[in-house]
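pipeline/complex-builder :: batch 7 item 3
reading input block
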Amino acid sequence: MARIRVYGDLRSGNCYKVWWILNQNGLDYKWIDVDVLAGQTKRAEFLTLNPNGRIPVAVFPEKGVLTESNAILNYLAEGSSLFPDDRWQRAKVMQWQFFEQYNHEPTIAVNRFIKQYLKMPSDRQQQYERNLVAGKQALEVMEHQLQQTPFLCGTHATTADIALYAYTHVAHEGGFDLSTVVSIQAWIKRIESIDGHLNMAAASAKQGSAATN
Amino acid sequence: MARIRVYGDLRSGNCYKVWWILNQNGLDYKWIDVDVLAGQTKRAEFLTLNPNGRIPVAVFPEKGVLTESNAILNYLAEGSSLFPDDRWQRAKVMQWQFFEQYNHEPTIAVNRFIKQYLKMPSDRQQQYERNLVAGKQALEVMEHQLQQTPFLCGTHATTADIALYAYTHVAHEGGFDLSTVVSIQAWIKRIESIDGHLNMAAASAKQGSAATN
């Protein structure tokens, strides 16, 4: 596979998912930092790459442009046990990833963004409060599953776990308390014991030092 | 395949996606009406089926429960050209479906719900106005692609098209004007010329009459 180019920002859980699988699977890639807060995703040059104005974006020299973190994650995980071949298992992986993008990311990641990066502006306060309730419900849906199985789709880690780990392990930065969801806590530890795993802070540190080499 | 049970409401585009593929692929199923407006998805009995309290839900007697419309759609389309085997093509299908659940559904479907079903309550007015802007942007992202290719992932219809057709062909019910997005209009006609295709209104009529037999 020719060298993949990835446009992203490692403060974003969506970008971290892609970084995680690139590193986990030892793929050759070039990481290009894009600063959302500085408006770089809305510039004309970036919009020719992704008209939706979002990161991450992956460019595969022989194939083209792929957007949407979970689509990139699954594509890069093909052939590994993280994205199982079994048709039913794949459907379950996708189920959890659609849940992530619809229920989890818009509440938990958005509250982290409002609190951590926007520093809680008053015009986002109401949305933040609503998201606290909806995000808690999303965590409870995960907790319900993780009381029954060690990983979201059963006995083994899949890209569904990576997709949901991304913003769950930093959920406290958005004001979410994980102390009552003990099965989620145990699941986080299970993911963090995967060989070669780095969490978002460690990924940022590693990528940051790589950029200076 | 043993008989599939699907819990849904054909006023919902998410449920319609599942109905569409069941009918298109001639699958044997039992449709169970669930009324979201009457709060049926939040009842204890339903929550044991889907702790996330949402429809559609598909129950496969030999496998288990599958939720999330696009996961069900893809699973049921396996083996047909609508969900291609090629790894890159599948990634592109997922890309558009994640876009649908993150950018399109929360704006276009939600505005249809606010306008058509909730009859525009004043406490949803602000959200409705915001969604008009964000939904228009989502339509422009689709238009940009459909200016280049007849279907979202290239020359053939895939489950990405069905996923996005669901709420796009009824977007006017949410207050969206499709008159300026001419490539979307042509794409809608292309999908509606697929053999055996029924739009959401025709599906409701057919399912309604089936229920009385």
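note: The longest strand of chain A covers residues 4-8.
queue -> next item
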